């Protein structure tokens, strides 16, 4: 039986020399690989008490939506600034080269609601750290953060210390 990592395509020297790009398109284009990925992420939530799942644009949507469906939970979109039609709250955060801003509908998280955040990849942890700030600003409680893949060499866990973080696959490098 194949493992999720068997479906991940590794592309050396992309986007620059010395980097190995971990491509999820080969996971999601294969029915068995996609089901396996969602099922493995679902297993990371065994025993976790939560109310709703949130995912950051755009690859958090890819795994968060089917996971929410499978677990009979709602799904909250965390989007780039200017993409949501109703009243929002936003947070700006630093990227490797520059900054970005994400937002969430003001009414998407209720005070005290227990939230799981889902994304495809943890690198430096910046996007998820900003997502946590958004959820907490609305009174939500982040009870777990899960990823399909983690690049341990970029030390994203350090940035998310104090939160329950889990990944299906961990790559030691960057």
Trace the largest sheet across and list its strands.
5-6-4-3-7-8-9
Q: What radius of gyration results from the CA coordinates? A: 16 Å
The number of E-state strands comes to: 9
Span from first to last CA?
A: 27 Å
Low-confidence stretches: none
Roughly how much helix do the residues carry, as a percent range? 25-40%
- Mean pLDDT over the residues: 96
- What sort of overall outline do the alpha carbons produce when their principal axes are compared? globular
Secondary structure: elements and pairs:
Blueprint: E1 9-12, E2 20-23, H1 25-28, H2 31-43, E3 52-56, H3 59-70, E4 74-80, E5 88-95, E6 98-105, E7 114-122, H4 126-137, E8 141-151, H5 156-159, E9 165-171
Parallel strand pairs: 3-4, 3-7, 7-8, 8-9
Antiparallel strand pairs: 1-2, 4-6, 5-6
Helix pairs in contact: 2-3
Keywords: Cytoplasm, Glycosyltransferase, Purine salvage, Transferase
Protein name: Adenine phosphoribosyltransferase
GO molecular function: adenine phosphoribosyltransferase activity
């Amino acid at each position: 039986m194949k493992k999720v990592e068997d479906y991940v395509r590794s592309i050396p020297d992309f986007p620059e020399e010395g980097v190995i790009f971990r491509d999820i398109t080969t996971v999601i284009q294969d029915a068995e690989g996609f089901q396996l990925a969602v099922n493995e992420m679902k297993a990371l939530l065994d025993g976790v008490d939560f109310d709703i799942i949130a995912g950051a644009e755009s690859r958090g949507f890819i795994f968060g939506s089917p996971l929410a469906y499978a677990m009979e939970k709602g799904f909250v979109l965390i989007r780039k600034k200017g993409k949501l039609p109703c009243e929002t709250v936003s947070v700006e955060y630093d990227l490797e080269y520059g900054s970005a801003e994400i937002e969430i509908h003001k009414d998407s998280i209720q005070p005290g609601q227990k939230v799981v955040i889902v994304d495809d990849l943890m690198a430096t942890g910046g996007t998820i750290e900003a997502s946590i700030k958004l959820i907490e600003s609305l009174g939500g409680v982040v009870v777990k953060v899960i990823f399909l893949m983690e690049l341990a060499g970029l030390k994203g866990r350090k940035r998310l210390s104090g939160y329950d973080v889990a990944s299906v696959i961990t790559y030691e490098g960057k």
